[in-house]
Design goal:
mainly alpha; 13 helices; 65% helix
């Protein structure tokens, strides 16, 4: 028997934790949340399995944990292009936006046309999705991409971009430098000039998102 919206919300609320809520707030989340650990959301999603109708209802609550669960229950091919666009624009929390991009947007049949639209969009979350899809193209399917033109845009726009978009733009700059030796020197130079994430705190053993350091470390591993 399918789980109802009220049952799903009750399960999420029961798993809430103040430490997670505090962490989420520091990361930009609002108060409409239970504070459920991501691993517990995944386990609940595995129990429910794909349920497109429930997912849409969960998203409409506006609750962060409900929306994270919704992402794992959605069926991307059953979403229209406009529905995907609306989801992306309303997913205004980095963790949520990244799950949505990874589990829904990247699996949608119209993702390339959406990518091109979002790259020219002023909405920071749409732009984040557009650059996230561009990073996917850079690393997996670069044929047809104008990499010098992308570097021109990154050099001109990344420094003043809103934080949600700036993060995935930075991935694109690093990705170009890592995967395309002919553009590596320029990517490093752009990263040095902009200086973004130079002092970003990273855990021991993790790679800095500062592009010159990131490129150097990943190339060392090749």
């Amino acid at each position: 028997m399918a789980m109802t919206l009220q049952e799903a919300l009750a399960r999420l609320e029961a798993m809430g934790d103040e430490k997670v809520r505090k962490h989420n707030r520091k990361s930009g989340a609002g108060d409409d949340q239970y504070g459920v650990r991501l691993g517990d959301i995944r386990k609940l999603a595995a129990t429910i399995k794909a349920d497109h109708a429930l997912a849409l209802a969960l998203w409409e609550t506006g609750n962060i944990d409900a929306r994270l669960l919704a992402v794992l229950l959605l069926k991307p091919k059953e979403l229209s292009r406009d529905q995907v666009d609306r989801l992306v624009r309303s997913g205004d929390f980095a963790q949520l936006a990244d799950w949505l991009n990874a589990y829904v947007v990247q699996k949608h049949p119209e993702k390339e046309s959406l990518r091109q639209r979002w790259l020219a969009d002023a909405d920071p979350w749409a732009a984040r999705a557009g650059w996230s899809l561009t990073y996917e193209r850079i690393t997996r399917d670069p044929a047809g991409l104008d990499l010098p033109a992308l570097l021109d845009r990154l050099e001109a726009e990344m420094g003043g971009a809103p934080p949600p978009a700036q993060w995935t733009m930075n991935f694109c700059l690093g990705g170009i430098g890592i995967h395309f030796p002919e553009h590596r020197r320029r990517a490093v130079a752009i990263g040095e000039t902009l200086g973004l994430y130079r002092d970003y705190p990273v855990s021991k053993g993790c790679t800095s998102p500062y592009v010159p350091a990131w490129i150097a470390e990943m190339v060392r591993r090749l």
